[in-house]
Every structure is written in C-alpha cells, then in structure tokens.
Amino acid sequence: MWISVSMGSVFQFLFPFVFVWGFIKHRDPHAAFLILTWQAASLMNMAQYAGSAESADLLLETPHYVTLYHDWVWMLSQLNARHWAPAIESFFWCLAVLFVLISAVGQIYCLAIIRKTQAHHSEP
User: Fold this and answer.
1) What is the C-alpha to C-alpha distance for residues 117 and 59, in angstroms, rounded to an integer?
2) Taking a C-beta distance cutoff of 8 angstroms, is the pair 85, 52 a contact?
3) With contact defined as beta carbons under 8 Å apart, do 37 and 99 qualify?
4) Which residue among 75, 88, 93, 118 is least packed, with the fewest CB closer than 10 Å?
5) How far apart are CA 54 and CA 81, in angstroms?
6) How much of the chain exceeds pLDDT 70, in percent?
7) CA distances (Å), 46 to each of 19, 86, 103, in order?
8) Could you give the CA distance from residue 65 to residue 110 in angstroms, rounded to a whole number?
9) Is residue 47 within 8 Å of residue 92, measured between CB atoms?
10) In angstroms, rounded to a whole number, what is the distance separating the alpha carbons of residues 9 and 48?
11) 102 close to 29: Cβ distance less than 8 angstroms
C-alpha cells in the first residue's frame, strides 16, 4: 500500500527530471534549466498537499462523489506523524525556492553565453 500511495508524490517529483535529462542529452542546457521552473511549481504543489495533512482539510473528489483524504494524510497518519506536516511543507517550499534560483541563474548564464556567441559571430 505504501508504494501505491507514495508513488503519486514520487513521480510528481521525478517526472520533470526526465525532460531535464532529455534536454541535457540533446545539449540544450537552457531548456533543461527552464524545466527546473516546472520542478519548482511541482514542489510548491507538493508543499500544499503535505502541509494540509495535519488538519486534513484538503480532500480529493472522485468521479463517484466520494471524498477521500489525499496521500500525505494517509502516509503521515500511518506513521502517527501528521504533526510533521508543517515541517515537510517548509522543506518542499525551500526546495522549490532553490529550484527557482537554480533555474534563473542557469537560464541567465545560458542566455549570456548565447549572446556572447552571437556577438562573436557578428564581428567582421
């Protein structure tokens, strides 16, 4: 059950890295750094879900109108650790900020290299 429940968050975290790897493999670092912005947004979403686990106030709606608790409520309840939810939320927010910073710095660096290369090629 743990694998089934936790895989939503695991894949939400790992999936953007598939594209980062693809862009790195195709030698497009600018696009790879841009995808890290998506990673940051994904982490912000995970922070919201993890943070709401303590009060269990964020529910999932199913097509059959059955309301369920989301995966973070279940996982932290199984560990008797719903009180950890604010700390996990803060951790994900810090990671999100880190990924935004890495993305911004990487994109600026790549654009500077592109601009420098274009300027070098346009010189007579």
Assistant:
1) 51
2) yes
3) yes
4) 118
5) 9
6) 90
7) 19, 12, 19
8) 48
9) yes
10) 12
11) no
Q: Which residues pair with 26 in a beta bridge?
A: none
The pTM score is 0.81
> 60 has which bridge partners?
68
Distance (Å, whole) CA 48 – CA 30 = 28
| DSSP per position, 31-78 | HHHHHHHHHHHHHHHHHHHHHHTTTT--EEE-TTS-EEE-HHHHHHHH
Nearby residues of 61 by Cβ (< 8 Å), 6 or more positions away: 67
In this structure, what token pair is assigned to residue 62?
């199913």
Phi and psi angles of residue 54, each rounded to the nearest 5 degrees, phi first: -65, -45
Measured CA angle at 35 (ends 50, 61), to 5 deg: 35
For residues 89, 90, 93 and 97, what is the CA-based torsion angle, rounded to 10 degrees? -170
pLDDT band at 70 (very low <50, low <70, confident <90, very high): confident
